Amino acid sequence: MSDHGGGSGVAEGTRRSRIFDYVEMASPAEPNETTPEQPPVPPEEHAPPPAADDLALTRRRREAAALLGEFRRTAVLVPLSDDGSPLTAEHGGIRWIYAFSDEPSLARFAIARGEGAWEWTYDRVLGARLLDVAIPAMPVPYGVALDAGSEGQGALFPPVRGIVPDAAAVDTDVDTDVDTDEGEMNGVGGNGELTR
Asked: Which tens digit of pLDDT belongs to each residue from 42-86?
């Protein structure tokens, strides 16, 4: 028995279900009985395989969505400036709130800035709270830079739809892809600087 009906008399190239073969074996035709001819089953239409670029884009979108979901569920460390506000940077007309997944990531950031000997104060905030509450309360567009200064682990969460509430979202020409091929993610370089 083959996937395509084998030698059971079905026209070459016509696909049949394996279940059909089992049905034929379970109820053979009586010798006096003639089986009505079945109309040929049309071949299954196959969509052309997606292009490699489409597959790569789909993979990158899934990685970005998984990263965003994990960030939203995780409490992160947000370093504070001297006045008690979140430590931020500006790049491309957007202010970025620095956030870190743990104390070693924050320490790498401090060292990359040449400020490793300083004492850093920080708040622990749920990622979803940063995106859904803090960013919409800001007077200008804000995003989140996660783990800046950690080689190959950083990510940017720009203020675009699907990441922040629509009311706080800006134009979607901000790069939101995860860039895993170059050892950096979303433009956060190993020195803690925003590269895009």
From this structure: 556 666 666 777 888 889 889 889 999 999 999 999 999 989 999
Q: Which helix (H) or strand (E) holds 129?
A: helix 127-129
Query: 98-123 as b/e, with b when 16 or more CB fall inside 10 Å?
Result: bbbbeeebbebbbebeeeeeeebebe
What is the distance in angstroms between the CA of the first residue and the CA of the last residue of the chain?
58
Query: Each residue of 153-163: b (16+ CB within 10 Å) or e?
Result: bbbbbbbbeeb
The dihedral built from the CA positions of residue 169, 172, 178 and 183, taken in this order, carries a sign that is negative
Report the predicted TM-score, pTM, of the whole model to 2 decimal places.
0.60
Q: How far is residue 166 from each of residues 54, 63, 170, 181, measured CA to CA in Å?
A: 27, 22, 8, 30
CA atoms within 13 Å, Cβ hemisphere of 153: 15
Q: Which band of pLDDT confidence, cut at 50, 70 and 90, is reported for residue 20?
A: very low
- Which DSSP symbol is given to 147? S
Dihedral pair phi/psi, residue 56, rounded to 5°:
-65, -40
pLDDT at residue 89 in the model: 92
Instruction: Identify whether the C-beta of residue 96 lies closer than 8 Å to the C-beta of residue 145.
Output: yes
Q: For 104, phi and psi rounded to 5 degrees? A: -60, -35
